[in-house]
Task: structure prediction
Amino acid sequence: MNGRPDRGRDRRRSDDSAAQEPAKGAVPAVDARLLVREEGVKGYVDEFRRKLRSGELGSLPVVLALVVIWTVFGSLDSAFLSAQNLSDLSQQIVGTGMIAVGIVFVLLLGEIDLSVGSVSGLCAAIFAVLNVLNGMNEWLALLVAIGGGAVVGLIHGFFFAVVGVPAFVVTLAGNLAWNGLMLQVLGTSGTVNIPAESIVSRLYSTIYHSPAAAYVTAAVGVGLFLAASLLDARRRRAARVPYRPVAEIVLRTAVIAAIAFAAAYVLNRYQGLPLALLIFLVLLVVLDFVLRRTTYGRRIFAVGGNIEGARRAGVSVPFVRITVFSIAGTMAAIGGVFLAGQIQSASQTSGGGNLLMNVIAAAVIGGTSLFGGRGSVWSALLGALVIGSIQSGMNIMGVSNAVQFMITGSVLLAAVVVDSLSRRSQKAAGRA
Result:
């Protein structure tokens, strides 16, 4: 009698051990991404083909488009690829690119913000009036202007996330209201000139002429990329999840280094490193870290990819929505200030024209999905380069604004078509 319970426990223990051990002849589960790296070059080629078939194109289409644009305009007029034109282009895209970064955050939620143009003009007007007309300290005026953009974004987010008004309607109303407030702030004069020695003008126009500035910036950027990649691989290896081997990290770093030092060489051939471009790149690095390396960033992707799943996982959807619109307003304010520094004035036309269309086009053309849940802040840089390159090339060739608008619209439509086809392919492959 006393031996039977022991035999029962022994049988249960042996059954548990058998369940934990793989059956004879069974193939152990291996992550496909590990097999890719074990197969060498062939594995990477097969993985690339699989991504193309499943619609996981990433930044490939926009990079190819940029290569084609530069090749075409460079062959038509050698001035396009001159160091002077490319250096000027790197400065001219900063204001539009910064506003486009805010649009990227909103698009990741699957929403849209139609007010960023008016917000950028309003914040530029606030700085100009406070600093130039009322004598407020320029740094304080700058902080007030940027803070005003953040508050405007909070207002949009509140009506969208808490009250439940569609983002399209909220920001469309904001586009009208903030434009009216900008006109009110500027007053009867309609235009406030910003002195060349103002902080806003200097942030845009300052250029570090020493060749070391551009090369050191490139070296620091490459070093940070290498260190982050190695730390990420180490962390993933410790967690026993797929990670990039050292050889692949070194190859990717070499590609980044070639691009960075080539850009530094081109900038040094003209005048040097523009401060505006440096600030833009630093903001991109910081916001990319926020999106890809923080819990908050993962929650943005979760809400944009599957809002109901994110809610059930405990994500505060209203908080994410409100803060994302606040980020969009902040970036619109920063971009508006840089645009004001570019022309050294704030006027009734600030934030108007085709600015709104350009920033939305830059975000979408750069690879951020209109359907939410997929994109990167670097999309703003790539998209702004495409838009700026088209405009710069056609200006050199003397093409009219009417044709420029039509071509830019066609490029935007092509980007949306690629996004839609990519999403359809991902659904067919079970990855969307």
User: Anything to note?
Assistant: The longest strand covers residues 191-193.
